[in-house]
């Protein structure tokens, strides 16, 4: 029986690692789906260290996919600071805009995250917020912006950052909120996607650094194997999910995610 219980525990952690990893990059809310699946199957992931860990897996996948962009932006920013190379100016400003866009969610999360989680943590509330996400995605389904990376402004960055802070509410997708805001501001799909996921890097890195003590305070010693499997699962799931989503963005098929949010949100609100 003990062996069976251990096996079930491993499957539980792998399952939630997959759910978190697969849903993180696509605009259907990873936090909302974790709430729904926990409610649906009567499972609870109460350790905060687990949430930190699977988010770190998603961060690893994003870093792998956008590694060339990250290296180029850092190199050009250093080049601009050292030699005032005009051709490197846009990448330097891009980093400044990412920093600016990180501030709203950081402040709001620090002040109100616990209160937000307590109010919106039920499956019924997640159903409502998923429907809101679907409406937002439906609104931008046919938009084709013109702004490239070098045409962004501090106002664009601040608005996208404010949109990201709304995603602290379970059921409001982080990628969905930032991409919707970016495209409403006139960004091209590729620019909106790149800004959204490069913005995920400082946000997720900051969460990891600020919560590293909690990661080791929980039951990491006795759960290191399930945690490791969840981390690997989340990393792989995020990698392939983001690659898939990039193709969907290129084809302009966001309406299908809107349909999904409408269906799952309605089921969560009416049934769960």
From TrEMBL:
Signal peptide: none
Transmembrane feature ranges: 7-28, 48-66, 92-112, 118-140, 192-212, 224-242, 254-271
InterPro entries noted in UniProt: UppP
Reactions it catalyzes: di-trans,octa-cis-undecaprenyl diphosphate + H2O = di-trans,octa-cis-undecaprenyl phosphate + phosphate + H(+)
Molecular function terms from GO: undecaprenyl-diphosphatase activity
PANTHER family: UNDECAPRENYL-DIPHOSPHATASE
Further details from the record: Bacitracin is thought to be involved in the inhibition of peptidoglycan synthesis by sequestering undecaprenyl diphosphate, thereby reducing the pool of lipid carrier available.
Record's protein name: Undecaprenyl-diphosphatase
